[in-house]
Write a structure and sequence with these properties.
By secondary structure, the protein is mainly β. The protein is built from one helix and 24 strands. The protein has two domains: 40 residues; 306 residues, Neuraminidase. The protein has a four-stranded antiparallel sheet with strand order 1-24-23-22, with no helix packed on it. Strands 2-3-4-5 form a four-stranded antiparallel sheet, with no helix packed on it. The protein has a four-stranded antiparallel sheet with strand order 6-7-8-9, with no helix packed on it. A hairpin with a 5-residue loop joins strand 12 and strand 13. The radius of gyration is 24 Å and the shape is globular. The termini are far apart.
């Protein structure tokens, strides 16, 4: 109470006034806190649990050939020429169109686009020269990439923040947004929303497949199927480490027969399905797959960016990171481009995560940690 307040009645009035003020202030503070929680970016995943040998999937079985296949490629780390003032951010998204142009979606010169206005989707010609970019302000965490038969660009956005993200977007080659699957900024387990969409691919008949669930042990690991207009058709997959389970379905590819290959990364394997979700086989010989690509000759390219010896994230002892190459006809790995990271056990990722191959057999690997796209040219 201010000094000099004259009597008891005045003291009571002043006390009641102060209580009202404190009550209003508390309401305002609570409202501000709730609003802040609602608007808080969800771009960063929650803390990961502490895993043990008992809770982790078993490592992929080793053979005499593991990590021993020949490397028949020469690597160029400086092929792409960015415009002045632009630097490449982390990227797991790369594709090649029908003209041989290479498309890359980076994370806005950093590892996140949530607060950036930079255009993340970039086009380069066959010589690595920058042509154009688009998509600024639409994404949070550009992740999976696919270029369809009409050269449309498909991009998954694996996180949500600031009213955007957790979507699959289809762009025309000139940057027009043609379709959005999911609800921007909304995460969920329904058939009209995603939690963390990892990858997208389009079948010959136009059906769209999306893999959902980027973090292990969070209760989401599924494949969703839509028709060419985005109408939901079906879904399959349950989280776990059993023979029929998925955990972090990180990559998708289709072979010439229309079989769907899923990079079941957390389980250190490739799961092969029909387009109706029937599991046909499980392959462990292609490492811990972060990225998959199948070319016109049914050659499978698998990018392992995470295998590590320590118990915990990436546990797959004995397997070296790198790109494994082999035919889907017999499943035999015939070539291997090893990761050059000197201490892979010291970090969660290195080397290629996203991967694509052009008509000449040149491999492009999008690297998150190194913030570049490597070009691997076959040695004749």
């Amino acid at each position: 109470m201010p000094p000099g307040t004259p009597n008891t009645a005045a003291r009571m009035i002043w006390g009641m006034d102060m209580m009202k003020r404190l009550f209003v202030a508390a309401l305002l503070l609570a409202g501000t806190s709730a609003a802040a929680q609602q608007a808080a970016p969800a771009a960063s995943a929650p803390p990961r649990p502490v895993w043990t040998v008992d809770t982790l999937p078993k490592p992929a079985p080793l053979t005499a050939e593991t990590n021993k296949q020949p490397n028949r490629y020469q690597t160029d780390l400086g092929f792409f020429k960015l415009p002045p003032g632009r630097t490449m951010g982390s990227t797991s998204a790369v594709g090649v169109d029908s003209r041989g142009h290479i498309w890359i979606a980076d994370r806005c010169g950093a590892n996140n686009c949530a607060t950036s206005s930079l255009d993340p989707i970039m086009e380069f010609d066959a010589q690595g020269n920058f042509i154009k970019a688009f998509g600024g302000g639409l994404t949070v965490f550009p992740h999976g990439f696919y270029i369809d038969a009409k050269d449309n660009i498909w991009l998954t956005d694996a996180r949500a923040a600031n009213g955007k993200g957790a979507t699959v977007m289809k762009f025309s080659p000139d940057g027009k947004l043609l379709m959005t699957l999911g609800k921007p900024g909304v995460q969920g387990k329904g058939t009209d929303v995603f939690t963390e969409p990892n990858a997208v691919i389009v079948a010959k008949n136009g059906d769209i497949f999306v893999s959902d669930g980027h973090e292990a042990d969070r209760g989401v690991a599924r494949i969703l199927k839509y028709d060419a207009n985005g109408k939901f058709l079906m879904q399959w997959g349950q989280p776990g480490k059993g023979p029929n389970d998925l955990e972090v379905p990180h990559a998708l590819a289709l072979d010439s027969k229309g079989l769907l290959y899923v990079g079941d990364r957390w389980n250190n394997r490739v799961q092969v399905y029909t387009q109706q979700g029937k599991l046909l086989k499980s392959w462990y010989q292609f490492g811990r797959p972060s990225g998959l690509f199948i070319d016109g000759n049914d050659i499978l390219y698998s990018a392992d960016s995470e295998s590590r010896r320590p118990v915990g994230y990436g546990y797959n002892p004995g397997w070296q990171r790198g790109i494994r190459i082999g035919s889907v006809k017999d499943g035999k790995v015939t070539a291997f481009i090893p990761d050059t990271e000197p201490n892979p056990d010291g970090g969660a990722t290195s080397n290629a995560e996203g991967i694509t191959v052009d008509k000449n057999g040149v491999i492009y690997g999008a690297q998150v940690k190194e913030r570049l796209v490597a070009r691997h040219v076959p040695v004749k």
